[in-house]
Amino acid sequence: MTLNCRQVLNVMVFFGFMFNYMLRVNLTIAIVEMVDKSNATAGAANVFRVLSPQAVAAPAGRTTFAWDEHQQNLVLGAFFWGYLLTELPGGRLAEVVGARRVLGWAMMGASVLTLATPLAAALSHYAIATLRATIGFLLGVTWPAMLPMAAQWIPPADRSKFMSNMMASSLGAAITMPVCGFLLATWGWESTFYVTGAVGLAWTLLWFGLVYDSPAQHPRISDKERRFIEEALAGSVQSKHKEAPAVPWRRLLLSGPVWAIVLTHVASIYGFFTVVNQLPTFMKKRLGFNIKQNGLAASLPYLGKYLMALGTGVAADYLKSRNRISTTAIRKTFTTFAVGVPGLLMAIQIFVGEDKVASVAIFTLALTFNGAVTAGYLGNGLDIAPNFSGTIFGMANMLSSLGGFISTVMVGSLTYQNNDFLSWQIIFGVLAGTYLLGAVIYLVLGTGELQEWNTPEARRPDKEPESLPLRNSSAA
């Protein structure tokens, strides 16, 4: 069976975001074996090692490093400093030069640097921190860049299913942990970087060979498929052979529907970061259960989130194709489900939080239900302003990325030297309020209607044709 060009794009995006996550978290898993445990908590007295950590021989003959807690946190956190810088520029750059190059070169660069991670680690913790910040800088463009690609290729009735491919990052989380664990045990920590870097590099080569920025630029697309896509898009997006329209910043920044997407995304990601990164600490210190060491309990939320994303994406596109309800109603319904339900679950957690089984169930369900964002606000920028969907998503992702830092500060300040249940009840209350506020904001301001400022007056579809002439070509 021959896949058409849209199906190839879906497959490439699915695996691309899975591998993207592997490049992001491989260090988080490998660092457990990279650090010499007998020296991992060395303090400021060991000045020489702080300034120039030296590799030491591990008992099994493998190289490890005498990094203390401060140095480890610097190495682990460096990724996010780079990641924050390129969210908004990445989305806009994809609108101007095309997502194929932006996403492809970013993944290639991150993969090559991943292969060089063992060498950087051998030099010093500053070297590997710089390398990880650069990887973050590169991967920061990947999520925002995908929306301009979808704007050119995916008809409105298929967009929710397409967005669910980006949630393959959740599958990447579920797969990366056991795979990297096997590599660590079998070939040592270096192998996690060699394997994930090589996989990312192989994907990049396929990406450049199989994917193009628009149907008009694809050399192997059939006339039938190209005509279907262009008619479905109905001139709502600027053709890639023309100069990208300038961002109408004033109207965009004053747009209620834009802020509905941005603020709801901030609330959703803040909740996600807190549940994933901070609540395992609650489980371990308050309930005596290390969820990260329980493979099933650790993997279920990620698997559930992807399945929820896929299922709700299919449901949303079915409703869209049958014209049963409006796009606005679809987006609001699924956003309320994806953000509001986790808020209610966190409110329940306030009262049952000292029950181990209930806590695991609530955290798992909260992350699972959150997968419905693919049918809700996540692809909403494609509805309201496909020409600037990368810019909108870049703005949302940049602000939401701060949620990880804010979450850490909040939990740290509330539990510092006082890890009692009351402190955690406050954290659950803040989480519940944040989730529910995001749902309310979207219900009030969100819409699925195309915004007038998406198409500048001089380039409206009734004034200028939007596509190149069809070529004679074979099916992809």
Automatic annotation (TrEMBL):
Residue ranges of every copy of the Major facilitator superfamily (MFS) profile domain listed in the record: 8-450
Keyword Transmembrane: yes
Compartments reported by the entry: Membrane
Keywords for this protein: Membrane, Symport, Transmembrane, Transmembrane helix, Transport
Top-rank taxon, per record: Eukaryota
Example GO BP: monoatomic anion transport
Regions crossing the membrane: 12-32, 102-128, 134-154, 166-187, 193-212, 252-276, 296-319, 331-352, 358-379, 391-416, 422-445
Membrane topology: Multi-pass membrane protein
Alphabetized CDD domains for the sequence: MFS_SLC17
Principal location: membrane
An example molecular function term from Gene Ontology annotations: symporter activity
Segments for region (Disordered): 455-476
The keyword Nucleotide-binding is assigned to this record: no
GO cellular component: membrane
Annotated protein name in UniProt: Major facilitator superfamily (MFS) profile domain-containing protein
Species this protein is from: Megalurothrips usitatus (bean blossom thrips)
